[in-house]
Amino acid sequence: MAAEHKVYADYQMAVHGDSADEVKLSQFLRFLVQSPLVSSDSGRKQKKGEEAPGFGSYHQQYWLDGEKLIAIGVVDLLPGCLSSVYLFYHPDYAFLRLGTYAALRFAHESRVYLALSPPPPRFPFYFRLFLVAVGSA
Prior knowledge:
The protein is of the alpha+beta class.
């Protein structure tokens, strides 16, 4: 988690101009780690011989040469969609256009998860946004 937080802090300060006080570990944990989603395999059926991840929040790590963590994508895997919550990367690697690469990977992964779902397809959508549930008042 320390490596992810370091990349997050560097990204937020370089790209968004946040101060060191705004990127403390506690803020990182609250924003991107402490998910209200409960990880679950309930209702998640798989095609024979294939493994599908359970529903929940995940951090997808992007490593350079297996040695340097350069980007992290936070995603929510839900019954009807893959929601891309946030992506942050080490500012020194901005030239790699990691946001574009991650968006293409997420789109591909949504197709993979759809293929792992039994008919009828239960995974037709990929969202590049943060899903916010609003209750009735």
